[in-house]
Specification:
heterodimer; A: alpha/beta; B: alpha/beta; Rossmann fold; seven-stranded mixed β-sheet; 44% helix; binds zinc ion
Chain lengths: 286, 289
């Protein structure tokens, strides 16, 4: 995604449906619109591994920005990370989990929820089984914002990323239907559709995802992102001290700000392309 | 009189069989209903193969009642588009991720060999940002079925009951416009379906009437919008009262806006977008007649 967004465009704050963006010339040639914080208070990050959110293409800076603005945040680590590092399965799980808790603390996340499926074996876990766990968590935590892997990302060779992306992408809307897992309702939970969803994906695996929004970060957001990145010492020992500063600065330069991250954003009406224009024009405050 | 008979015979000779695969009651209609209607209007015979039972798409009905109503309403909508027959495979809505892809493919393949369609409409499994994954799974199965239906070594028992191999000459991959890159040709390879826009101006009213038949789903869409707005201190004046009239208006706006989006940049007033593989480039030469 680097070296793509060259053309200059006036800075504007939007978060609107992707339909408006597609009307413009090829996305890759443009500076992206800068996203505002979505209205809300609760953020759920669903990832496959202990460190997914802390990569340069991950959500670290944006998580820091949202918690700084008052969001409560929860991190779901879907697997047990037993294979990430060469220190043995059990120890890998333990240390990676411990470092995940430390990293998320830097970002202002209040809890790491570990589902502990076996690392790199998620291709063999039934989709609907994973999705059911996420639906339950969404109904319990009622997030306004979900951050997860892009279900349509290309060329990601990690089976856990693919499965988590698809299961979380579906859980985000299916949690809103009362006839989905009605047993949850019997336990007092209520349906809840996540209105705002952000997807990340490695962009250096070929075409990957084409992002549609840039998130401006403050120096403090980047400092916390950097700290979270380096908290994962088990897998990142020896990484350059300013790795995240450098990456966020490069992305920022492409979009006309000092620091930034880029994502694919789905607005609250993106699932209704035939009604989104009406809703954007005609909805009023009560 | 002789001329008229000749004309009727010519038209009858050209009438095609159209098989429409859909994951659910609304997707085929919103994405491809106008194009299907224009085919049935010219005399083609259309059959709808509905993969799931739509048991989850209502506002406050039980799964059983939701499935029952959506089944009846889907049949009514299909009739309004000129579709003569609806076959429901009966899988539970939202659960296709747990169904054997080969089982689903072979059931669709059965109907392809049974009806021998000239044209197949299928959900585009390669369209991005279609959040309802049933559409993706149904599309993958239908795409594969269109291929395996032509191959003798697939499902030998089918041949035992007279279901011979069949090549479908035209494929319309459909999807509602979620994918920002949907108009980019994916490849110049002759085997890859190309973007195609179909003018539905003459069929728009019919498409709207068909969409209005999906009362349970339309009501659920309206209620979910209102619920979301209410919970965030907002309102859409049209939905201050949710009744038959306001739901119908919302549905009509939905269909008209989708038609306008499809027509954008084409010179048409109303259109639908597809990825299309026709006899000239969609079918490998060894299968061409
Ligand atoms: Zn990972």
């Amino acid at each position: 995604m680097r070296n793509q967004h060259q053309r200059s465009m006036p800075k504007r704050r939007v978060y609107h449906c992707c339909l408006l963006l597609l009307a413009a010339a090829p996305l890759a040639a443009q500076k992206l619109p800068l996203g505002a914080n979505p209205e809300g208070k609760r953020l759920l990050i669903i990832q496959s591994h202990h460190d997914d959110h802390t990569w340069e293409f991950g959500f670290g800076g944006f998580i820091a920005r949202l918690t700084r603005s008052g969001y409560e945040a929860w991190y779901v680590r879907t697997t047990n990370d037993e294979k990430d590092s060469g220190i043995g399965w059990g120890r890998g799980d333990q240390i990676n989990h411990k470092e995940s808790v430390e990293a998320t603390r830097h970002l202002g996340i209040k809890e790491v929820i570990s589902l502990n499926w076996r690392n790199d074996h998620m291709d063999s876990v039934p989709m609907n089984e994973v999705r059911a766990h996420y639906i339950l968590l969404i109904r319990k935590l009622r997030p306004d914002v979900l951050m997860t892997w892009n279900p349509w990302g290309h060329y990601d060779r990690n089976p856990d990323h693919r499965k988590v992306a698809r299961a979380a992408g579906e859980a985000a809307w299916m949690a809103g239907l009362a006839n989905v897992h009605p047993e949850h309702l019997a336990a007092g939970l209520k349906p809840h559709r996540v209105p705002y969803v952000y997807y990340s994906q490695r962009s250096d695996y070929g075409r990957g995802q084409v992002p549609n929004i840039a998130i401006e970060l403050s120096a403090e957001d980047v400092r916390r992102k950097e700290a979270a990145f380096h908290a994962h010492q088990n897998v990142r020992r020896g990484s350059p001290k300013d790795a995240m500063d450098k990456a966020s600065r490069e992305t920022g330069e492409q979009h006309g700000v000092r620091y930034a991250e880029v994502f694919y954003f789905r607005d609250e009406w993106s699932h209704l392309p035939g009604l989104a224009p009406l809703l954007e024009e005609s909805v009023v405050k009560r | 009189m002789r001329l008229l008979i000749l004309l009727i015979l010519t038209l009858a000779a050209q009438a095609r069989t159209v098989l429409v695969v859909t994951a659910d009651a609304s997707d085929f209609l919103l994405a491809a209903g106008g194009t299907i209607a224009s085919m049935t209007a010219r005399g083609d015979t259309a059959i709808l193969l509905r993969v799931t039972n739509d048991e989850k798409n209502s506002w406050d009905l039980s799964p059983d009642e939701t499935a029952r109503r959506n089944g009846l309403e889907c049949a009514e909508a299909a009739k309004l588009l000129g579709i003569g027959k609806v076959v429901s495979l009966g899988y539970r809505e939202g659960e296709l991720g747990g169904v054997s892809p080969t089982e689903l493919r072979d059931r669709i393949m059965f109907y392809i060999r049974l009806h021998k369609p000239d044209v197949l409409f299928l959900p585009n499994p390669h369209a991005e940002y279609v959040e309802v994954l049933d559409r993706h799974y149904a599309g993958l199965a239908a795409e594969e079925a269109s291929h395996t239906a032509a191959l003798r070594n697939h499902q030998p028992p089918f041949a035992q009951v007279g279901l011979e191999t069949h090549v479908t000459r035209e494929l319309y991959y459909y999807a509602q416009p979620f994918d920002p890159r949907r108009r980019e040709p994916e490849s110049t390879a002759t085997f890859v379906p190309q973007p195609k826009v179909s003018d539905i101006g003459a069929m728009l009213d019919r498409k709207i009437r068909a969409a209005l038949a999906l009362k349970t789903i339309n009501h659920a869409v309206a209620m979910r919008i209102r619920d979301r707005l209410e919970s965030t201190g907002r309102r859409l004046p049209l939905l201050d009262t949710v009744n038959d009239a306001s739901v119908a208006k919302l549905t009509e706006i939905n269909v008209r806006t989708l038609a306008g989006t499809g027509a954008k940049g084409t010179g048409f007033q109303s259109a639908e977008e597809f990825h299309y593989a026709g006899p000239d480039f969609g079918v490998p030469s060894k299968f061409r007649k």
